[in-house]
Amino acid sequence: MSQLPVSLLLGAFTAAGIILIFLVRLVLQTQLRGVATSPTRMVGLKGKAITQVRPEGRVMVQGEYWWAHARAPIAEGENLRVVGIDGMTLEVEPCPDKSLIPRQVSAIAPPDAELQ
Prior knowledge:
Blueprint: H1 6-33, H2 39-42, E1 46-49, E2 56-61, E3 64-70, E4 79-86, E5 89-94
Parallel strand pairs: 3-5
Antiparallel strand pairs: 1-2, 1-4, 2-3, 4-5
């Protein structure tokens, strides 16, 4: 078995180290940046009430659970629309329009099964 030249090994380890540092830097930047929840991104989104919202409760908007506040009562399972955001609490209103309401998707349950 022949031996590899030291310069080739050093070059390969240097390249691997540079790539590793670059990837770790990208991961750390992504983790520190977090999720953008600005009012302009949230207002107008539609979701579903997980609990009764009278005047506060839990809702799901774009696959995330939020605390919500509503002026009009919203029943559990009812569709809603985001009209504002105050810190980490969404201001919501009932949304009778069923178009564009996101459905929960499961890789386990059949498509017709009702998800809780």
